[in-house]
Design goal:
The complex is a heterodimer. By secondary structure, chain A is mainly alpha-helical. In chain A, 84% of the residues lie in helices and 0% in strands. Chain A has two domains: 47 residues; 200 residues, MetI-like (MetI-like fold, Orthogonal Bundle), CATH 1.10.3720. Chain A contains ten helices and no strands. Chain A is globular. The two termini of chain A are 30 Å apart. Chain B is mostly helical. Chain B folds into two domains: 42 residues, no CATH class; 219 residues, MetI-like (MetI-like fold). In chain B, helix 6 runs antiparallel to helix 9. Chain B is globular. Classes of the chains: A mainly alpha, B mainly alpha. Chains A and B meet through helix 1, helix 4, helix 5, helix 6 and helix 8 of A and helix 1, helix 4, helix 5, helix 9 and helix 10 of B.
Chain lengths: 262, 266
């Protein structure tokens, strides 16, 4: 019996690993093909640098361009934005939950805000906050706010009535009811919202850094491109993509850990 | 009875909305008059209103709007076709999906604007690089939605198509696409949102025409009323287009996709 299970497990493992290997092999194959096409002159090497050159530029980006320091700078901006997001977003979501009339009046507005291209307001933020980290943090905050509010509201609304009734039978004050019953019950949904908000914030923070040429990783790409240092530009782009993939993956794992039943 | 309570609550909501808007407007006017911020940063509502009217009467605005709309339409056409094609392939074939879908899934929520310097080198400083930016932005949400949509097609429909010996083109045109209408419309809706962002951000970075250029130009000349007017018109158009596509998706389904739960892709 256990042998059968083991073989079937091995079979599913290989069924899963097979395609992954093919995916990885394709990526490597494409990179090798580009290298060859550049070397034989079909792709212009002044437009696309050799992949081997890009790999060669990576130590230079780390040592000379302080990429790790810039990464920390971007992360610091993200941290401030996420603090603002958590405090304001959860509070506003709870406010809309508490006052039904307010919710009826404002929920569609918040949903419309989620669809609005907020990052395009960055020149306005530049005028108000100057060319500073504050502008970048505020854009990240504004871009991620709507999902946090909506998901907090959704989580609080979906709290099981029986839990609320238990709290009432213990005569909890509204503040106690919120802290001990509503908030813990809504936490998984709030985290989904926070993760969405954080990802929006991260995308917009790096984007605005690039656009206003200020701050961490985004500015690095802008500077390298303006210096026409092609291998380093491509290398820095790869670094940012990798960093955001890792960020996306870690927050995804956290989210699954928080809501294992779904 | 129920009807009257419904009407009264509707009236209360409307009143509250008017009260909120009035409060915000009042606070804005007070801030504009207070001089706490530089005078031009918060112009009074009357100034902004007349700037909107001036903008809408300006022929140059429509010329630039047409350019931006054309770029976004081209981006959506190219990225949409590519996204739907890739989505159908990934949704139809388990092996391909396992091999490549995680690539799309992970590349989706990365900041696309950082590719702009590269796109300028590939497609030039004109409309080409803006369209490419839009394509890069909208491809991912559309491909992900189309792949998910392909997987939720009722297998009976596919079997019926096969039993009629439909060719691949007929299968796509007569079975797959009609059955996937709702997820595709929703994907296009998300794609449109990020294509607008991608194209306009590219225009603000390096361009000499388009709405993004007008916005950054208003910033450079510190014409704040005009910048507010541009942003108001742009947001109205973007939210309106989104709501229209949302309505289109809803006609085929009773369950709308919530804007808050969309994949963050840009």
């Amino acid at each position: 019996m256990s042998e059968v299970r083991q073989t079937s497990r091995r079979a599913t493992l290989s069924a899963r690993l097979g395609p992954r290997t093919v995916g990885l092999a394709t990526a490597i194959g494409v990179i090798v093909l580009i290298e060859i096409l550049i070397r034989i002159g079909i792709i212009n090497r002044f437009i696309v640098p050799l992949p081997s050159q890009i790999v060669g530029a990576l130590p230079r980006i780390i040592a000379e361009e302080n990429v790790l320091h810039r990464f920390a700078q971007t992360m610091e901006e993200l941290l401030w934005a996420s603090l603002l997001l958590a405090l304001t977003g959860i509070a506003l979501g709870a406010l809309l939950y508490r006052f039904r009339l307010l919710r009826a009046a404002c929920e569609t507005w918040v949903a419309a805000l989620a669809a609005a291209p907020i990052v395009l307001m960055y020149p306005l933020f530049l005028v108000i906050f100057g060319r500073s980290a504050t502008t970048i943090i505020m854009i990240g905050f504004a871009a991620g706010l709507a999902p946090v509010i909506l998901k907090t509201l959704e989580g609080l609304t979906r709290t099981r009535q029986v839990l609320i009734d238990v709290g009432r039978s213990f005569r909890l004050t509204p503040a106690q009811e919120f802290r001990k019953i509503l908030l813990p019950a809504a936490l998984p949904s709030i985290f989904v919202g926070l993760r969405l908000g954080l990802i929006f914030a991260m995308i917009n923070i790096v984007g605005v850094e690039f656009l206003i040429n200020f701050g961490g990783l985004g500015q690095l790409i802008n500077e390298l491109a303006e210096r026409y240092d092609l291998p380093a530009t491509y290398g820095a782009i790869c670094f940012v993509i990798l960093a955001s993939i890792v960020f996306f993956d870690i927050t995804g794992r956290l989210e699954r850990w928080l809501r294992p039943n779904e | 009875m129920r009807r009257s309570s419904g009407t009264s609550s509707w009236r209360a909501v409307a009143l509250l909305r008017i009260a909120i808007i009035a409060t915000v407007a009042l606070a804005w006017e007070m801030l504009a008059a207070s001089g706490l911020l530089f005078r031009d940063v918060v112009p009074s509502l009357g100034v902004i209103g007349s700037a909107v009217v001036r903008l809408l009467g300006d022929e140059g605005f429509y010329r630039n709007l047409l350019i931006t709309v054309g770029e976004i339409a081209a981006a959506l056409a190219i990225g949409g076709l590519a996204g739907v094609g890739v989505g159908i392939l990934l949704g139809a074939n388990r092996f391909l999906s396992r091999a490549y879908e995680s690539l799309i899934y992970y590349l989706g929520p990365t900041p696309k604007i950082i590719f702009f310097p590269v796109l300028i080198m590939w497609f030039g400083v004109g409309s080409g690089s803006k369209i490419a930016m839009g394509v890069l932005s909208c491809f991912f949400p559309i491909a992900i939605s189309a792949a998910a949509g392909m997987r939720q097609i009722d297998p009976t429909l596919i079997r019926v198509g096969r039993s009629f010996r439909a060719s691949i083109g007929q299968m796509i045109g007569k079975v797959y696409l009609p059955a996937m209408r709702e997820p595709i419309v929703n994907g296009v809706r998300l794609g449109l949102g990020v294509a607008i962002i991608g194209t306009l951000l590219a225009e603000t970075k390096l361009s000499n025409r388009g709405i993004g250029y007008l916005i950054i130009q208003a910033y450079a000349t510190f014409d704040m009323p005009r910048m507010y007017a541009l942003l108001i018109v742009l947001f109205t158009l973007a939210i309106g287009a989104n709501a229209m596509l949302g309505g289109l998706a809803r006609t085929s389904s009773l369950v709308p996709v919530s804007a808050s739960t969309r994949m963050p892709v840009q």
